[in-house]
Amino acid sequence: MGSLDSHYEEENSSSNTANPLNPEEFRRQGHMIIDFIADYYQNMEKYPVLSQVQPGYLAKLLPKSAPNIPEPIETILHDIQQYIIPGITHWQSPNYFAYFPATSSIAGFLGEVLSTGFNVVVFNWISSPAATELEFVTMDWLGQMLGLPQSFLFSGVGGGVIQGTTCEAILCTLVAARDQMLAKVGRENIGKLVFYGSDQTHCALLKAAKVAGLESFLCATIGTTSTTAVDPIRSLSEVTKEYGMWIHVDAAYAGSACICPEYRHFIDGVENVNSFSFNAHKWFFTTLDCCCLWVKDPGALTKSLSTSAEYLKNNASDSKQVVDYKDWQITLSRRFRSMKLWLVLRSYGVENLRNFLRSHVKMAKRFQQLVESDNRFEVVVPRNFAMVCFRALPTRLKKEPNGCNIESGNIEAKLIDQEYANDFNRNLLETMNASGKVFMTHTIVEGIYVIRFAVGATLTEDKHVIKAWEVVQETVDDMLATK
Ligand SMILES: *Cc1c(COP(=O)(O)O)cnc(C)c1O
User: Which keywords, in A-to-Z order, does the entry hold (predicted)?
Assistant: First the structure.
C-alpha cells in the first residue's frame, strides 16, 4: 500500500480538509461571528477606549508557530476575546473622540460582508459588470447629493471612482496633473514642476509628491486634519486657472457634511477645480476603505495610469464602451467597494444621513459651549464641523506659573508661559487617555498644544459628550490639587 509518507498524506487529506466554503458551515460560523460583534458593540463601554497594552504584548501570549491541525471557531473566538480585544483601541466606542471618526453602521458593515461574500476582483468591466456599473450609479448619486456640477458626473463628461484612501486619490490626480503639464511644457522640464499646499495640508500630499516627482499641482483642503480649517476654493481656483495648474480639493473628513445645504457653501467654487475627493470611511457610515474621487477629465487619469496586457484583453474593453477602473487607480485588482456605499445610501436615505451628521455637529457645539462656560479653558480655533479644538489655560488656573504672566508683555516670559501651557495640556491629555474613560488626540497650531475633540462615533450620545467634559474638568482639578 505504498510508502508510509504517501499513506499519511492520503489519510490527512481525506479526514481534515472539509471544503473551506461549505455553505452550512459558513451559516453556522457566520451567525456566531455576527453574535460576537453584536455583543462587542453592546459591551463596548466596559473596555478602556485607548488600548492599555505594552508593545510586544501579543507575541508572548500566542504560540510560536501556526497550528498544524485545524482549530474550531469557538476556540478562536475565545482567544479573540482574551488576547485581541485588550489590544484593540475602540474606534466605535461612544467615548472615542480622537483623530477623526471611523463612523460605522449596520449598512456599511453588511455591505462589506456582501462584497466580501462575492469576492470579485474588479479590474475591468468584464470581470464583474455590476461592480463597475454600481460604482457609476453610487458615485453619481453621491455627486448629486454634494451638489457637484454635471462636469464631474458620468451623466456629464466627468466621472467618479472609489479609491482605497485619500493618499491614493491625491497620488492618482497628481500623476495625471504632472503628465498633463509635461505634455504642454515638454518632458525635459520635469525638474521645474512644483506643487502647492499649505502648512495645514495633509501629509498625504508630501507622500504622493515623493512617489510621483514634483508637480504643477495645488491641493486645497476643506476641513484640515489638525483643526478642520477651510481653504477658499474659489479664489485659489482663479489663480490656478491663470497658470493652467491642476487643483485638487481634499475634503477627506468634511466632504460628508457638504451633503447638508447649510454646509454646502464650504465647497462653493468646486465647479472650477479639476478633482475632488472625500472619505466615506471617515464620517459617512461606510467601513474602511472607501475614498470617493471625482474628476472632470477621466482621460487625464487613464492617460497616466492605464496598462494593457494580453491576458486582460476583451471585446468590451476594445469597444471603448465600458470603463475599466484599473486605469483610474494605482493598483490593478480592486474590491467591490460600491456595494457598501450603495447599502449605506439606500438603508438610510439622504435626509437621515444629513440628520446623523447634524446630530454630531450639535454634540460638538454642546461640548464647545461647555468649554466656553468654564473660564479655565478656551476654544483655540473656530469650530467648523463636529470637532472642537480646546485647551486648558494654566495662566488662569494658577496666578503666576513659573513667576511669569502672559499679560506681562515680556516676550521671553510669554514663551516660557507657552511652554508651561503646552506641558500642562500634554499632561492633561495623557492622563485622560490613560484612564481609559475617553480617547482624544492633539495637534500643535502655531506653537500652541491643542486637544482635539472629534465627535462622530455612531454610538456617541449627548450623555457621552457631557461625561467626557466631566473627565476633562476632573482631571484638571486633580492636576491642580497635586501641584
Ligand atoms: C484623513 C485625511 C487624509 C488621509 O486620508 P487617508 O484616506 O487615510 O489617506 C487626507 N486629508 C485629510 C484632510 C484628512 O483628514
Answer: Decarboxylase, Lyase, Pyridoxal phosphate
**Cβ of 202 below 6 Å from ligand 1:** yes
Domain's final residue, options 87, 113, 131: 87
Residue 239 domain boundaries: 121-335
On whether residue 112 sits in a domain, the answer given is no
User: For a substitution probing ligand 1, which of 91, 99, 103, 202 has the most ligand atoms within 8 Å of its CB?
Assistant: 202
The verdict on residue 42 lying in a domain is: yes
- Count up the domains in the chain and report the number: 3
Model pLDDT for residues 414-453, shown as the tens digit of each residue:
666 889 999 999 999 999 999 999 999 999 999 999 999 9
Instruction: Look up residue 47 and give its three cell numbers.
Output: 473596555
Pair 468, 438: CB distance under 8 Å: yes
Centroid of ligand 1 to alpha carbon of 458 (angstroms): 19
Q: Which atom of ligand 1 is nearest to the CA of 201?
A: 13
Same structural domain, 299 and 413: no
Domain co-membership, 261 together with 410:
no
Same domain, 422 and 280: no
Q: How far apart are the first and last CA of the chain?
A: 82
* Residue-level length of the chain: 483
Q: What is the pTM of this model?
A: 0.87
- Euclidean distance between CA atoms 170 and 212, whole angstroms: 10
Centre of ligand 1 to C-alpha 165, Å, is 7
Tens of pLDDT, residues 152-189 = 999 999 999 999 999 999 999 999 999 999 898 888 88
Residues 223 and 330 in one domain: yes
